[in-house]
Amino acid sequence: MNDFPFLVANSTPSKDRLTVTAPWDQSVICDVPVADSNAVEIALSNAHTIFKDRDRWLAPYKRIEILDKTVEIMQSRFEELAIEAAREGGKPLIDSRVEVSRAIDGIKNCIECIRNETGRGIPMGLNAASQNRLAFTCREPIGVVVAVSAFNHPLNLIVHQVGPAVASGCPVIIKPAEDTPLSCFRFVQILHEAGLPIEYCQALVVNELSVAEQLVCDKRVGFFTFIGSGKVGWMLRSKLAPGTRCALEHGGVAPVIIDSTADLDDTLPLIAKGGFYHAGQVCVSVQRVFVPRMMANDVAKQLAELGEKMIIGDPTLEKTEVGPLIRTKEVDRVSEWIEEAKTAGATCQTGGKRLSDTTYACTVLLDPPSNVRISEREIFGPAICVYSYDEVDEAIELANSLPYSFQASILSRNLDFILRCNRRIDAATIMVNDHTAYRVDWMPFAGLKQSGYGVGGIPFTFEDMQIEKLTIVRSLEL
Q1: Is the dihedral of CA 448, 161, 151, 96 positive or negative?
Q2: Residues forming a β-bridge with 201
Q3: pLDDT by residue (tens digit) across 60-104?
Q4: Domain spanning 254-432: which superfamily?
Q5: pLDDT per residue as tens digits for the range 131-160
Q6: Which CATH number is associated with domain 17-250+451-471?
Q7: What does pTM read for this prediction?
Q8: Active site residue ranges
């Protein structure tokens, strides 16, 4: 069993311990210390004190040195990080290795953000009022960052929240998901090993909502970054102290619109991967696929065949392609939603059953009614719904009918069809001939409507965690 120290400077944990279990077989991995109200207060005081003392701010070159060393350490422990993420989060090892690669590349991206950081000149001398003046901006850290993260990418999400904070010069306190704290703690330990003072990055878990709210809603917090459920995120945003900026990333119910000209041999394997990857536990997983009526049954059957070939099992094994859901109660919920759709008239092409207490079969449903939960909300499970349409505008209307908007896809070789859909679909990002879950970590990543607030992606988060300070110099020599 791993033994993690308490990662709050000058503090001790409560007597409580959080037991971390493997979602695959519910075996105990380890237990970790829990922060109480006193520890949260100390963490905030540590971070605020170091931020207010400008003589202790880390110079850009020092931040680069720390992040360079972080990359070196992560690369040397690559397989250890991948196995730990797979074991605690349930994402198959083949995909957890991709996650570690992305996390390492994300730190490199943070370094590039520092190297490319620049202010700008503001024109002066353009009228009588601006004579004899020089104006320019520079960037400074916004303040203490508090980050609350999700379980489904237990290392890379932490990098997306903590990495830009360190790069921008902000002290950060990170609260990982209680289901998957180990990858977070490991990463924070690596940062400390690389030379980052512990006060600049503290990590903790809590077991009371009131303690979590104490952390998030404190007036000393300059920026709040949240990845998780919309219900919790919007609630916390409503309680932020005046002046605290924030970014929220929630889920979507990702639509795909297919045209009769689409190259299905090329794109359907991508759609299946985008729907069943990590057992559908991704905020932009493929969930709703709209297909011309004459093709819908065939598309559903092809997706079903692709799903049936995927190996479901222990996420730490090389051969596994789809792992467990994060909790047994999530298997219960997914089963309930799918049974509801089947009872209401959906045709189950494959799956539609639990395989164990922790796993659910890759499922394809044809034409679920529009008023069942799987048609209206994010299932966060291994299920793809195929809907028949007669006219593309009908499909677009259905795609836009929900209060969620994140990433969407268009599968077609008809440029006019692509452009029509691209202009009319409500989404922050449109993929053409690719699945909805595609992402590289330097691109903007934004949920619209109830799917989020602000723009993610490492360079964009880096900017959010800074202020742009304007300086105006008056001199008669200008």
Answers
A1: positive
A2: 172
A3: 999 999 999 999 999 999 999 999 999 999 999 999 999 999 999
A4: Aldehyde Dehydrogenase; Chain A, domain 2 (3.40.309.10)
A5: 999 999 999 999 999 999 999 999 999 999
A6: 3.40.605.10
A7: 0.94
A8: 249, 283
